[in-house]
Predict the 3D structure of the following.
Amino acid sequence: MVFNSFEFLIFYPVVLLIHFLLPHRYRWISLLIASYYFYISWNPRLVFLILFTTAVSYFSSILIEKEHEKHSTGDGKTVNGRREKWLLVLTLAASLGVLFFFKYFNFLSSSVTGIVNIFRKSPSDPLILDLILPVGISFYTFQTLSYVIDVYRGNIAAERHFGYYALYVSFFPQLVAGPIERPENLLPQLHADYRPQWSDTTAGLRMMLIGFFKKVAVADLLAPYVNSVYNDPENANGLGIVIATVMFAFQIYCDFAGYTDIAIGCARVMGIRLMQNFDRPYISGSIKEFWRRWHISLSSWFRDYIYFPLGGSRCARWRHMLNIVIVFLVSGLWHGADWAFVIWGLMHGLYQVIGFFTQKPRDKMWNALKIGADSKFVKYLRRFNTFVLVCFGWVFFRAGSVSGMSSFKALAIMIPKLFTDWSFSADYFTGTFEHMGLTLTAAVTAVLSLLVMRRLDITKLGTDSSDGLVMSRTRYVYIVWVIALAWMLLLVGDGASSFIYFQF
């Protein structure tokens, strides 16, 4: 079941109706049943995986807390003994073991076999298992890990009610593609006795509309033109690759941010406020800022559970830079079991390292040119440079899911063309657009959709709400809403397309 499907159009109102008709003490049951139904609609056979991860993290956290009580110093500080450490290690091994087996076994098997075959006279085939990637496994695994680690650190108390904890892991709005929630935010809200509020209902529905617009009127609209190039790189040229990559930048943003907006809106109607996951990433003036605005829940997860434990920036400079690169290598691998994703992650890590070492020379250059480093010219130039670097990275990211060929073969074809296959003849431009199926009408439609999307992102940051989810009530904003809704209805296609991040 996907958000943009007829099934969800029936499922969600029924869930809301049952949820608000039930007394508070029974609501967790209806939400848990709904969440598991939502999950098993993908593949009932894989439900045991989320049950296993939930049970392991639940019981190990209670045991860790009991060990804390035995070793309590009486001053509120947590002292972790050997048993707590072993319990944490076993929990991490069990949860990550499931993730690695289903997501990375075939990738590791192929990679290791490929390396070994270099030194063999008679190459052998890798062991490839017929595995189904459980939807959302990367998201709910990280959510359970943050819970166990926080209990181990003494930051939160272990949840003793298994039903509420199972709901925390499987809460259907954010189950399959985030945001990756922290226990201190979501668990108390699941326990709270919430009464419906009109402001939450309207704010939630507006957020859902923004998400549906991004998915239907932008991401799904751009997808065919992106696929025409990336699924047929042999017949693409440099201009086509550039246009398709820029389109993919907005496609993946609107696809993923659209899912997040719908998830936040669904939860908000029920009085539950999920964390913000995107904040207009393409206005970033640096790669570091981009990652403060893109997939915020994942970026903050890596910061708190990998970057800081490695030493963060409180260490020697070379170690600080290495920590950044390690985090982004792991981020690339998290996104997909393909070397193209690893390279993409490494690129973003190196972007930040290079940016760190060139900061002072760049500031001196602007001073020498007598141009203020904070001037509008420099600000927009930085935004443009950041967007170009991000788009170049998207070439590798998208190549990780090219159909019909390996990512390395696709990159070997596309990267040279990106820099060499150019011409300024009329036939070159005409051929590019014909190959993509991009007509003047389609181009204008895409531009208009992007303009409406940009305005929706701006109005989402209204000033009459402390959390930024309620829109300012002006005539101008209502006009934008009417245009967005009408435009989306005009562009809605046949059937429901899946969201890109479901594969991660």
